[in-house]
From TrEMBL:
Name of this protein: ubiquitinyl hydrolase 1
Family: Belongs to the peptidase C19 family.
Source organism of the structure: Paramuricea clavata
Enzyme class: hydrolase
Domain of life assignment: Eukaryota
Amino acid sequence: MEAYKRIVFQELPDAFCIQLLRFSNQGKKMKTIVEYPESPKVEQVMEPETDDVEVISEEQYHLVAVISHQGNTITSGHYTVCALRSGEWFYLNNAQVSKIFGLTARNQEAYVLMYERDTTKKSNAATTTLHSHPNQS
């Protein structure tokens, strides 16, 4: 089963975060793999409350950080970060920092995704959707 989430912005921000709900109501970790875009295109629309929307502008964003949770419950575990700095990805785990490949950053069990507006490109494509695959862990 696939699930889709649509987020509508009335005004496009310079940066935004997406928090993925990784814990059940009982506090147990859900290890569902979520596919998320590295460079989503986001639309600003005129009438977000209706199905008949008019696109005012589109902007390209890029992934700059992925926060992951290692552990099995909401009350235990450890957080790590993969972050982009000067075009290179780094893995941050407490005081340890190591350089990694971008693909490694995208393969994390994402908990929080952080995006920034790409000021080098102008976009002309559609809104991005996150896809959830609950059968993968």
